[in-house]
Structures are given as C-alpha cells and as structure tokens.
Amino acid sequence: MVETDAVxxxxxxxxxxQVFQLGLQxxxxxxxxxxxHPGGQCAxxxxxxxxxxxxxxxxxxxxxLTKRLLQQIAPFATPMHLGQQxxxxxxxxxxRLLLSTTAGRQWLTRAVFLAAGVGAFVPxxxxxxxLDAFEAGPxxxxxxxxxxxxxxxxxxxxxxxxxxxxxxxxxxLLRSQHCASVTLLHRSDRFKAEAALEQAAREAIxxxxxxxxxxxxxxxxxxxxxxxxxLQALRLATPDTPxxxxxxxxxxxxxxxxxxxxxxxxxxxxxxxxxxxxxxxxTARFATxxxxxxAVGDVCTYPGKRKLIVCGFHEATLAAFAAAxxxxxxxxxxxxxxxxxxxxxxxxxxxxxxxx
Length: 356
Ligand SMILES: Cc1cc2nc3c(=O)[nH]c(=O)nc-3n(C[C@H](O)[C@H](O)[C@H](O)COP(=O)(O)OP(=O)(O)OC[C@H]3O[C@@H](n4cnc5c(N)ncnc54)[C@H](O)[C@@H]3O)c2cc1C
What we know:
The chain is of the alpha/beta class. The chain contains seven helices and 21 strands. It has helices at residues 13-24, 40-44, 62-73, 164-176, 195-206, 309-327, 342-348; strands at residues 2-9, 29-32, 50-51, 60-61, 80-81, 86-91, 97-101, 106-114, 120-123, 156-160, 181-186, 211-214, 216-223, 230-237, 247-250, 253-256, 260-263, 274-275, 278-280, 293-295, 300-301. Strands 1, 2, 5, 6, 7, 8 and 20 form a seven-stranded mixed beta sheet that branches. A four-stranded parallel beta sheet has the order 12-11-10-16, covered by helices on one side. A three-stranded antiparallel beta sheet has the order 13-14-15, with no helix packed on it. Strand 6 (86-91) and strand 7 form a beta hairpin. Helix 1 (13-24) packs parallel to helix 3, helix 1 runs parallel beside helix 6 (309-327) and helix 4 (164-176) packs across helix 5. The site of flavin-adenine dinucleotide has 36 residues, from helix 1, helix 2, strand 9 and helix 6.
C-alpha cells in the first residue's frame, strides 16, 4: 500500500493540470487512470482534432495539449498508474482515505481529487461466456488495449470491430509481419472509419493479406494446457451458417476493438452529494460533501458550470489552494507568482532570475 498526501483520479487535461497546481503547493500526488495512456477525452475522443480555446495556445490538437500538460508536470515526477480503474474509496478511522483499483493496488491518502470527467473509459466487452478468463496472466489471449506486435510472433491474430481502432490495429499487425495470420472480424461488411483507413483495409482484404470474416461470436472452444485452459477458437454465427449453428474461427490472440464507453461506475456509490451524475462542489474550494475529497473538471457541477478545459484549469487551481490548507495547516498559504517566486522556481526546478 502506498501512503501519500494526494491522489488524483483521472489523467485527462484537468487531472494533469491538477497535478501541476498541487506541485506548486508542494503537494506530491499519485495519478490514476483507467486508460492505458494520459489525456482523457482529448487523447481518446479527438487526438487529431484542433482545439482553439486554450488560453495562450491559438490552436493545438488533443494529443498536443496532452503532451504539453505532461511536459508541464514533468518537474514533479508524478507516479502514474494507468490501465486501472479506482473502484473503492473508504474513510479510515484516522480520517485518511483508502483507495483501491481494479489492479489490486491501494493508496492511503489525505486528499483525493476527482478529475474523472464523464467516467472511466472502459472497453466494450465481447459478450461470449467464459472469454474473460483469457484476459489475465502473463500472456493473455484476449487483449482489449494496446499490443506489441513483436510479442505475437507466429500467432493467428483476430481483431474485432469495424471502426478506426480495429482497422488501425489490423493494418499495424499486417505491417509488422510478425503474425502467422491477421483476421478482421466484424458483425457486418460495413465499416465506420476514416476514409483513408477504410481504403487501406479494403485493399489489404482485396490482396488477401488481411482475412475478413463477417460474423458474431457466440461461444468459444478451449483446450486444457499446463498453465490453464487455452483459447482455441471462437464459434461464430455467420450469414452462411444455418440458424442455430456456428462455425469455428481459430484464434491464438483476440484483440477486441469495439470502442470505449465512459462509466462513472463506483464513483456514484461513494456517498458524495450528486446532481444529474455530477458531483456537487462549492466554488471557492471545489470541495465535495466529504472532507478531503475535491472534484474538478467535467465530473463536478455548480451553478454556471461549463464543461470546458479552461474552466477545469481554474477549478484545479482553487482546489489545490484549498488542499494546501488541509495538508500543510502549519504553513500560511500565500499567493505567489511563478514569474517571481524563488520558492516556486525551486519546486519547478528552474533557475531564479538574478535580482537586478
Ligand atoms: C469531440 C470533443 C471536442 C471537444 N472540444 C473541446 C474544445 O474545443 N474546448 C474545450 O474546452 N473542451 C472541449 N471538449 C470538452 C473537453 O474535452 C472536456 O471538458 C475535458 O476533457 C474534461 O477534462 P477532464 O480532465 O475533466 O475529464 P476527461 O477528459 O473526461 O478525463 C477523465 C479521465 O478520468 C478517468 N477516470 C474516470 N473515472 C475513473 C476511475 N474510477 N478510475 C480511473 N480513472 C478514471 C477516465 O478514464 C478519463 O481518462 C471537447 C469534448 C469532445 C468530446
């Protein structure tokens, strides 16, 4: 279990800036996100689209903003725990908060910052009974996130889905030439992807490099192995199989890319005052109804709330000032400028300009 002063839940733009503002208050935070990468909606929903309303940045894409925010928090060397969803939050007898994630990790902290946006982005699952048993272990056969093609050498890979992520993964595996075969499995022969991607995928299918199967997996076949059962095939209902029957699709590794859906999930059950699936905060401290728990960004609500990144940046700034009073009660929390404060320069690891 990790003991710390602060945990930020959500590595979207607001969670990242929260870490920065906490750093300026000399509060080191741990950052947790369900996604395998930082950036929240910016990285997941519009990485290549332009944003025009970030103060001082006339235009930048979602991924560029994420990159810049990561650069900004670099001085604080924040431990990031990605690919895990915070599931429980419990008050301890000493007043601290105990957090646990789906990866079985735990943190004991004095303050929690909910920067959870519209919820944890979790992959849409394949509805085949028993398939989740193949997601675990050192060499999982079912992988919902990312993949290093080099680890799939000689394997028969099946990618599921008909959107950008599925087509991109299929083409990436083809290019790497590590797999014994690459199959794209989709419930229909219509894709919902960018034109260039679709064209590349259709060309690969036409050339026979990418195998394309229309079908719906209903069941699986597995065999016992020395390290537990091994997935051998999916049983598919296809347009050609008679009603009530299925045909096998051999698979060594299954990469479902069916999209992500945000789930507020457990946060809604932590007893915080909420209004329409958002957490109620005060606008001076961005404190929730529970002591030591703050909420910022899209997840919070108050009169006049606008779900904009710049609004989240303001919220994170005031929440950090409030947390400083809680975590360092012995210190006077003063407003200092990053331009002129030697203390802030020391925290940021930059040189103070010589006095003239
Ligand atoms: C298409 C589109 C275009 C947009 N364009 C603009 C724009 O031009 N300007 C602008 O200001 N805003 C824009 N927005 C809105 C902006 O993206 C959001 O206001 C912003 O992303 C909110 O940031 P956030 O950090 O609060 O939440 P998010 O970006 O949603 O990040 C929240 C993170 O928390 C994680 N999380 C949630 N719950 C948990 C949990 N229990 N455990 C672990 N992790 C968890 C999620 O996985 C996610 O990564 C746009 C939004 C969309 C969809």
